Amino acid sequence: MRENNFRTHIATGSFTLPVAVLVAAAVLCTAAPTADELWKILAVVAVMTYALIELSNRNALLRVRSRMVSSTYLVILAACPFMAVWSTDLLPAVALVLTYFALFAAYQQPRPAGYAFHAGLFVGIGSLFYPPMILLEVVIVHCLLVQLRALNWRSLLAVVFGAVLPYWFLAGWGIWENRIDTIFVPYLEAFNFGAPDYAALTLPQMLVAGYVVVLSLCAAVHFTRTAYNDKIRTRMYFYVFLVLEVVLVAALALQPQRANVLMHMLIVNSAPIIAHHFTLGRGRALNVWFIISLVLLAGIIGTNYYLVLYAGSH
Prior knowledge:
- Helix content is 71%, strand content 0%.
- The protein has 13 helices and no strands.
- It has helices spanning 6-12, 16-31, 35-59, 68-78, 91-105, 113-127, 136-146, 153-176, 185-189, 203-226, 232-254, 259-280, 284-309.
- α3 packs antiparallel against α4, α5 (91-105) crosses α12 (259-280) and α10 runs parallel beside α12.
């Protein structure tokens, strides 16, 4: 029997997504420095929101009718007014969501090479804006092998070809511009990883990162204990999210100086995990935890809004 309480009303309510949209839009509209940057940011966020809705619906990530995946993404993004500045750092997260579509479509397919190619391609495109993202190709291969049961020699080659294709076009552009000897230099320099520089993190970034990691950890523990309630296919999808979650948290811990790009990817990847926890969990303790989480989020939104817009903490 489904519970009837404040948490379930929020998780399955028809007004949750519109409210989340209004909250995120209010923060972004007031935090964006110029109208031109605002429209670019809103366009990216709108694409991400729609993609997460479609991802949840197409793959039945939640067992009930809910918009919690996209709503979770939006309300956490509302706690990030420091992201209301247009940058290509926003684009790898878009590529990551597109990668999910290709990966999940490959699940136990007898001929998964096409889907594997697109998964590798989207990661490769994302790496044009954040070169270390290309290392996720290893994670893609792992997920195809272990969680999705879709790895064979054809799909392995397809991932490699997909990853290489954007750079093949980049090389063509370098030849056209007569600078083939320098066009790859910035990408190679991006792999000169220095020691973690935690001084590069601002207080707003630390608050959001800590909040997302704690919620994701609680959600991951809940999922591993109750995964038997989901279909096998859905379990495998969430195991993909969990593998990527570990990788992204580790990347943020090792390279905090790249927090802007990594945090957006982390929020996108964490949204389905957190949404599953709050939508499908049961018990009075979870209801209390949900309210505490909302209060904490409201506090972080208010604190970060003040720090970024009025105290100048960037």
